[in-house]
């Protein structure tokens, strides 16, 4: 990961006085808050190297931020980047306006940039959450005014707002204090703070020296989850953690597994994916030389073929869904899946994990997608939160 030494002009701290804004807040809320110590926001002016320019916090799975950066560099031609959390979070400046940037990645969604959030405001972190709660609330009210002005979005009067506060490591008291302060300000101004299906998301990242805040719509964020980290509760008797990958694919790609009739699960053992498809009412043919979990054996909707997938023949039009989570070389897996796709109807769905065991993930993805592209439309390639050293390909058979 190249760090360009992109700095903030920390020497050029601008004290921006918001007396007028504070006056309005005091009148509107009719609260007797103690504003005495909250007279200014110490805003950090982010350096701009491009015109137009926009700043973003980009988050990837651990170890993949350099690939997220490379993807954005290829898409935008150039960028500036500064690491915030090693391997997984960076502050990036792109040579495009916010609107252009969002349009670009809505058309070409990034594979490794798991979550991209705008930076509309950067402030000095020092001492912010140490004072009384009402002072932090007053500060957050000022920030919110700034975020609304920069983003053109509102968080008050009936708007459903999610507040996502993150820092690099484990959850901290500071995160909690800032989240609570924002919630309180939003509720006071008539907004409704929610966890799911918000209209607007206020995003805050606590960096080492600075706090970065932004505001975006739910559609722009593409996820209800802070940093795109979609978390599921582990169920009693769950067969494998791998099940979370298929669950996340279902939500991320907007699939409805219950709409499928017959799925082929290649490399199915011990059966996390198979169990989810069975729960959705799909008939599953599971292929794996390894053992399926005993709880699945004898399931009336399951056909278990205990063999190497290379030796299993398929009949045309047997399946409307093919899923493959086989741990093997990406190209050899692609060859095998392409042969098995003969058993899938035209328009059928293919979901495949591509293992990134090599040092050149972008090249591997290019090679493998080129192989699949002759037989299927690649709808989306994405490293899901639950993908470790792999990505998920979502395709439709021609
Ligand atoms: C990561 S596990 C799959 C986990 C599964 N998706 C789940 O939810 O439990 C990979 C599986 O691929 C299987 N596998 C590897 N090579 C295979 C092949 N040639 N044919 C069939 N299965 C294979 C392995 O036996 C292993 O069980």
How does the SSE layout of this entry go?
Layout: E1 14-17, H1 19-29, E2 40-43, E3 54-59, H2 65-76, E4 80-85, E5 89-94, H3 98-107, E6 115-118, E7 121-124, H4 133-151, E8 160-167, H5 173-188, E9 192-193, E10 200-206, E11 210-217, H6 218-221, H7 243-252, E12 262-266, H8 272-279, E13 283-287, E14 302-305, E15 319-324, H9 330-340, E16 344-355, H10 361-373, E17 376-382, E18 390-397
Parallel strand pairs: 8-9, 8-10, 12-13, 12-15, 13-14, 15-16
Antiparallel strand pairs: 1-2, 3-5, 3-6, 4-5, 7-11, 10-11, 16-18, 17-18
Helix pairs in contact: 4-5, 7-8, 9-10
S-adenosylmethionine binds next to α8.
Report strand order across the widest sheet. Answer: 14-13-12-15-16-18-17
Helix segment tally: 10
Principal-axes geometry comes out as elongated
Distance between the termini: 38 Å
Share of residues in strands: 25-35%
**Helix coverage percent:** 25-40%
Radius of gyration: 24 Å
Bound molecules: S-adenosylmethionine
Number of strands: 18
Low-confidence stretches: 1-37
Helix/sheet category: alpha/beta
Overall tally of domains: 2
Series of secondary-structure elements, N-terminal to C-terminal: EHEEHEEHEEHEHEEEHHEHEEEHEHEE
Mean pLDDT: 88
**Under CATH, the topology of the largest domain is which?**
VC0802-like
Q: Which CATH architecture of the largest domain is right?
A: 2-Layer Sandwich
Question: What can be said about this structure in brief?
Answer:
This protein has 398 residues and is of the alpha/beta class. It is 29% helix and 27% strand. Helix 4 (133-151) packs across helix 5.
């Amino acid at each position: 990961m190249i760090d360009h030494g992109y700095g903030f002009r920390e020497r050029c701290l601008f004290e921006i006085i918001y007396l007028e804004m504070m006056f309005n807040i005091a009148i509107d809320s009719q609260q007797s808050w103690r504003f005495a110590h909250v007279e200014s926001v110490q805003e950090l002016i982010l350096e701009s190297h491009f015109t137009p320019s926009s700043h973003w916090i980009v988050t990837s799975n651990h170890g993949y931020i350099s690939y997220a950066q490379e993807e954005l560099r290829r898409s935008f031609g150039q960028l500036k980047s500064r690491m915030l959390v090693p391997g997984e979070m960076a502050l990036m400046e792109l040579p495009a306006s916010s609107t252009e940037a969002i349009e670009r990645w809505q058309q070409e969604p990034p594979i490794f940039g798991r979550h991209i959030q705008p930076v509309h405001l950067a402030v000095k972190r020092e001492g912010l959450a140490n004072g009384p709660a009402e002072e932090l609330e007053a500060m957050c009210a000022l920030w919110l005014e700034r975020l609304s002005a920069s983003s053109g979005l509102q968080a008050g009067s009936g708007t459903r707002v999610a507040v996502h506060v993150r820092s690099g490591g484990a959850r901290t008291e500071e995160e909690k204090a800032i989240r609570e302060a924002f919630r309180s300000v939003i509720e006071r101004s008539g907004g409704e703070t929610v966890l799911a299906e918000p209209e607007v998301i206020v995003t805050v990242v606590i960096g080492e020296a600075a706090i970065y805040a932004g505001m975006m719509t739910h559609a722009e964020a593409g996820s209800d989850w802070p940093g795109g980290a979609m978390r599921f509760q582990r169920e009693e008797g769950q067969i494998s953690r791998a099940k979370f990958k298929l669950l996340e694919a279902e939500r991320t790609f907007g699939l409805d597994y219950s709409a499928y009739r017959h799925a082929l699960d290649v490399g199915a053992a011990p059966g996390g994916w198979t169990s989810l498809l069975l729960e959705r009412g799909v008939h599953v043919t599971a292929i794996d030389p390894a053992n399926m979990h005993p709880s699945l054996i004898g399931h009336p909707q399951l056909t278990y073929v205990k063999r190497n997938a290379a030796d299993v023949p398929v009949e045309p039009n047997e399946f409307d869904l093919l899923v493959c989570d086989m741990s093997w070389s990406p190209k050899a897996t692609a060859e095998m899946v392409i042969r098995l796709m003969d058993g899938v109807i035209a328009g059928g769905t293919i979901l495949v994990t591509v293992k990134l065991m090599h040092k050149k993930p972008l090249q591997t993805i290019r090679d493998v997608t080129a192989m699949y592209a002759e037989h299927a439309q690649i709808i989306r390639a994405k490293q899901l939160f639950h993908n470790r050293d792999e990505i998920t390909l979502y395709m439709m058979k021609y």
